[in-house]
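Late entry, written up from scratch paper. The run itself happened at the end of the previous shift, but nothing got recorded in the book at the time, so transcribing now.
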Amino acid sequence: MACVAFGNSTGLPLTLLAVIHSSFSASTELGAVDPTTYLSIYLLFYPVLQWGIGGWLLAPPVEAADSKSHRALSADHLLARYSKPDLTTELASPLNPASPPQPTTVSILPTLLAIFSQAAQPPVLASLLGLLFTVTPVRGLLVDLKNRDDDAYFEWAFDGLDTLGQAAVPINMIILGANLASGLKVPSCLARKTGNLLAEGEGSAATSGEGEASAFASADIFAIVVAKLIILPCVGCASAFLLRPILSIPETVDASFFLVIMIVFCCPTANTMVVMCELSGVNKEAVSGAIFIQYLVAPVILTLSITVCVSIATDF
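Output as recorded:
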């Protein structure tokens, strides 16, 4: 779920949008309006969702009492950890075997607190701080909001950060290449059809006698690739068509706006998912392998998806 839901929304979309924008002349809509302007608005909220909901999905599961059980990537374990058992459950004890077991009640507030605790990461805090600056008068200290002649008190700091931000595209592509290079050592785990990759002990799956399949088998990798690179781009295009009559977007900027909406659906799984898996203590090698396979087929599938998205955007 996390691999499919959270895609690469920073490095790859920035590069794709920059290339698409430079490929059109200034007389066209996509060449006149920089699409990365709307991507920046999206990136203010994306880290909150990724580290909040994604961190909740990848939270360390509760260890089962049975030594033969394995650690599953399921949000139900986290719900069980923060759930408050009902007092009626205690009545279903050996002293009263006739009493049927009662389900436990899940409290919403502890679950939300668990999500917020997972979301308290530097990217999320930086995004929230940027939103705080935007809606407060502090923004006027960084940007001249009156006549736009760059004479705000701390305009020099904003200009310096803007200069550093212009290096985001090449730096992100270098990081992406480094992550893909490290992924060359990962696909060996994809050939393991049996054994529990998420078990604490090496022999836990062998002693279980159940022949448990690995968490990320070939069928799982294929499902992730199809869902992330084929189904989700179709969802993005459908979202653009559904939102067009609802949102009042000026015709001079609607092509760039809807292009961003569609492109963020097309990109492979975010590389930060590996970092989130490592912080959560779950199987980061399997997630790295899934990302690696996506980038192997991305030159063909992603190119077709971007071509369709650009064609749809230019027709808007």
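Residues 284-315 form the longest helix (32 residues).
(Scratch paper discarded after transcription.)
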